[in-house]
Amino acid sequence: MSRFFVSQLQHNQQVDQVFLASNKQLRPNRQGNLFLQIDLSDRSGSMPCRMWNATERDYAAIENGDYVYVEGTAQLFQGSMQLIAQSIKRAEPGDVDESDFMTLQTSEVQELKERLLKTLRGIKSKPLAALVEAYLTDDVFMDKFCRAPAGIKNHHAYKGGLLDHVVNLMDVAQAVAPKYPQVDVEKLLVGVFLHDSGKVDELEYERDLAYTDEGQMIGHIVQAACLLDRKAREAEGRAQLAFPPMLLMELKHMVLSHHGHLAFGSPKLPMTLEAVVLSAIDDMDAKLASFTGLIKECPNADSRWTQYFPNIDRKLWKGVKGD
């Protein structure tokens, strides 16, 4: 039987299939009765699920990151789809098709990696090339970099999402930079590569997506800056050169300022031309990915508009079919 993906579910549709479980909680309702709250996802998106009159045994029967077999009914609630479950149990391995949960297939990840390597290994600057190789020849880092998401909710929140995001930004950087000859395109490309590199250790992504303890307490911006220090020292040994202190400071600045605003978590505002460009294209790519996902997952199939999203303080225009 073909599955219905999260983005395809309709109001009052009966559901009887496998999802990936995360963020499970056992909570009391207003009457004090317990219910199980859990997020269910597949490659198309995620939705909240509730199972009323749950028990401690129901809660303990599944773990975050499990594939679970769910029977229930999809419901439209306050403009978003949710699932009311009658039963949730751990799925048997034979019931799971891993491809249903992979936004990017293995071949797509490999293609993105090859594009990344081609771009970065085209850098001519000797210190930048040596720095890049210190990352690219680190098999542990590169394995994590190609598997990590760029986030757990807002944008590129899927395995391989970080790689997808970075390659997108490299394409944009190479398209934009020729219009602004005062921008050092090689420095910008390295900043694009490094800006979210801390996410390989900030996030967990073996099954469900979550923050590591280090990610919660330190965060990817500081993690990336610390990693950059270590890789700059490796680059010095690799290329038999003293890594230029000013260049290292500028690269760190791009990492530290790429969120663009102090209120968004950047400890510094962008103060170099390359940092300004990086912050702008990073914000654009993240917003377009996030907004596209909101439009795609919108359950208002017959409307030209999505529902109102409080977190972005607006509805989104879906357009007219055939335009």
For the structure shown, list the relevant keywords.
single chain; 323 residues; alpha+beta; OB fold (Dihydrolipoamide Acetyltransferase, E2P); Hypothetical protein af1432; 2 domains; 5-stranded mixed β-barrel; 7 strands
> Can you identify the CATH class of the largest domain?
Mainly Alpha
Instruction: Output the strand order for the largest sheet.
Output: 1-2-3-5-4
Helix-strand string: EEEHEEHHHHHHEEHHHH
Which architecture of the largest domain per CATH? Orthogonal Bundle
Radius of gyration from CA coordinates:
22 Å
Distance between the termini: 34 Å
Number of helices: 11
| Average pLDDT reading | 92
Shape: elongated
CATH topology of the largest domain: Hypothetical protein af1432
Structural class: alpha+beta
Total domain modules: 2
Roughly what percent helix?
40-55%
- Beta strands, count: 7
Keywords: Hydrolase
InterPro entries: HD/PDEase_dom, HD_domain, NA-bd_OB-fold, NA-bd_OB_tRNA, YhaM_exoribonuc/phosphodiest
GO biological process, one term: rRNA 3'-end processing
Pfam families: HD (PF01966), tRNA_anti-codon (PF01336)
